[in-house]
Amino acid sequence: MFDVTDHLRIGPTELRRVPESFTLRPYERLRLEPLSPCIGAEVHGFDMRDQPDEATLAELRQALLEWKVLFFRDQEVSRAQQRDFAALWGPAEQHPFFNYMRDDQDDEEVVRIARDGGFGAGLRAVELPPCGGDTLWAEAGAAYDGLPEGLRERIDPLVAEHDWRTTFGMAMSAEDRDRLGDRFPPVRHPVVRIHPETGRRTLFVNPFFTQHIVGLDAEESDAVLSRLYREFTRPEYQCRFRWTPGAIAFWDNRSTQHYAVSDYAPQRRVMDRISIAGDRPFGP
């Protein structure tokens, strides 16, 4: 039986952004303003309408690996320019359920997300409420590091099953869920994945898609997953971004989880999102 006790932590927490084996070079083209010690940085000195040279692009890539979420303010870009920036990182991934996000979707690569009241992803503010609607990101590597050593060793070889029907499927009819279920069946991924570029171990479960841990009975699976989810809630592993007109966030889905705060009803919050195709997760 797993020990899933929350242990009391006293004193400062030492956080690292990348493994010791990962070499960071000085930034010469960009100025980074961290939002927290381990995750999130605003990027200054870059206009997303411009095509970056190789040196600038290399610094952007390093910044993403170091900080996991990059924020760009006052970017007056079009959908096409947002798509061009995303293409620097890899091919855009068509959202398989984009027609169910809103009825007026007309672009399979740029999903418009509006609420009244892979590898990576980019989010652009289109319409903002006067107050509220922030987004929080949590660092999955720090969450793994923060677990007791014994628990880390126990979860390293585990695999979990994930299913979209408990999230996107809730907005569909039963007929549509059944039809799409044949094309997109449940998948299994490691509970702990290895970041392919930094080599860091990160937690790869979340309460929205993860159904259960393979090989554990329901009670123990629920207890372990609940313990891992709680680790993500520690403020030390998080940053919070207050959106402003023209702001864009770009993050690494392989090492983060995010949450959009729903505190602005009855005002509107409209965002354009592009997802970058990812790689197949592998574990220790």
* CATH architecture label name: 4-Layer Sandwich
What structural class do the secondary elements suggest?
alpha+beta
The name CATH uses for the topology is Double-stranded beta-helix
In angstroms, what separates the terminal alpha carbons? Answer: 21 Å
Query: Mind telling me the CATH class?
Result: Alpha Beta
Counting DSSP H or I runs of 4 or more residues, the number of helices is 6
What strand order characterises the main sheet? 1-2-3-13-5-15-4
- Total discrete domains: 1
The number of E-state strands comes to: 15
CATH superfamily: Clavaminate synthase-like
The best one-word shape is: globular
* Radius of gyration of CA atoms, rounded to a whole number: 19 Å
Sequence of secondary-structure elements: EEHEHEEEHHEHEEEEHEEEE
